[in-house]
């Protein structure tokens, strides 16, 4: 949109274009300014969560927080004012996020004991999705969901197998080591087995006897052997989902969906899949 078209609008329409769109210089400047304010407010939230800085610079952090809250409140009200359908904006996803970015501060002001609600301020980070227009990439997350659904049964079987191994190893270590060496109960021994088989290894409980160390070695080797299994299952399903998407070219005659990306004719009825003008940009 050029500046002449923007100047021909009334004040409310101009605000709407600047705030909700980025196809004007003013809109891009507004989004840049808003992005800086969002990140600055998140920095304040992080420093406020550190006891040393909160005690030493409490007044400054509170002042900055109220400054940012005021900015976000004004912005929220302006968005409602200039939107052609205010109710639609208020009840939209981003409308709720915009509201949640200012409400916690006022709740904490009215209810001093509810200061923990200020943690909700971190939800302002979600506003970055709109400013950076990241929502256009969220459709790619559908591939991940399809892959998860496709690999669900395999992963469930895998998790059940791992759970069985953990129960066996934990019980075995409880029998071998016993309470004297830190394995005070079967649940505690199962905890050790989970930590070991996932190769985390906190080291708070360690086997002492030679037989216990031998079992621990077996558990660690098992962990390294199975750690890549769910990744392989998920990756295979993800590749299948992406390939299926690339094959979805509908035949205008018989409605068959699955064709190779570069196929020119339907594999079922032989009809042409694309018009010549679609295949040749110069036509």
Automatic annotation (TrEMBL):
Tree of life domain: Bacteria
GO cellular component, one term: voltage-gated potassium channel complex
Localization, UniProt: Membrane
Keyword terms: Ion channel, Ion transport, Membrane, Potassium, Potassium channel, Potassium transport, Transmembrane, Transmembrane helix, Transport, Voltage-gated channel
Pfam annotation, one family: Ion_trans
Presence of the UniProt keyword Ribosomal protein in the record: no
Membrane topology note: Multi-pass membrane protein
BP GO terms, sorted: action potential
GO molecular function, one term: voltage-gated potassium channel activity
Ion transport domain segment(s): 29-240
InterPro entries given in the database record: Ion_trans_dom (IPR005821), NOB1_Zf-like_sf (IPR036283), VG_K_chnl (IPR028325), Volt_channel_dom_sf (IPR027359)
Transmembrane segments: 33-51, 57-78, 90-111, 131-148, 155-176, 188-208, 215-236
Protein name: Ion transporter
């Amino acid at each position: 949109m050029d500046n002449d078209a923007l100047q021909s609008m009334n004040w409310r329409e101009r605000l709407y274009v600047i705030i909700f769109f980025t196809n004007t210089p003013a809109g891009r400047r507004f989004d840049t300014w808003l992005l800086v304010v969002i990140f600055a407010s998140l920095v304040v939230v992080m420093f406020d969560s550190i006891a040393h800085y909160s005690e030493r610079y409490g007044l400054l952090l509170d002042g900055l927080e109220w400054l940012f809250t005021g900015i976000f409140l004004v912005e929220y009200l302006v968005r409602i004012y200039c939107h052609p359908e205010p109710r639609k904006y208020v009840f939209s996803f981003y409308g709720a996020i915009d509201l949640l970015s200012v409400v916690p501060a006022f709740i904490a002001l009215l209810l001093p004991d509810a200061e923990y609600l200020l943690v909700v301020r971190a939800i302002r980070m979600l506003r970055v999705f709109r400013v950076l227009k990241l929502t256009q990439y969220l459709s790619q997350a559908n591939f991940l969901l399809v892959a998860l659904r496709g690999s669900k049964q395999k992963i469930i079987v895998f998790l059940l197998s791992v759970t069985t191994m953990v129960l066996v190893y934990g019980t075995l270590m409880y029998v071998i080591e016993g309470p004297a060496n830190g394995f005070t109960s079967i649940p505690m021994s199962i905890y050790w087995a989970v930590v070991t088989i996932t190769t985390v290894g906190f080291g708070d409980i360690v086997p002492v006897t030679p037989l216990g160390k031998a079992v621990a070695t077996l558990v660690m080797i098992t962990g390294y052997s199975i750690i890549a299994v769910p990744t392989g299952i998920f990756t295979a399903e993800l590749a299948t989902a992406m390939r299926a998407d690339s094959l979805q070219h509908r035949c205008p005659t018989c409605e068959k969906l699955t064709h190779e990306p570069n196929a020119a004719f339907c594999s079922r009825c032989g009809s042409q899949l694309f018009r010549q003008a679609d295949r040749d940009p110069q036509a």
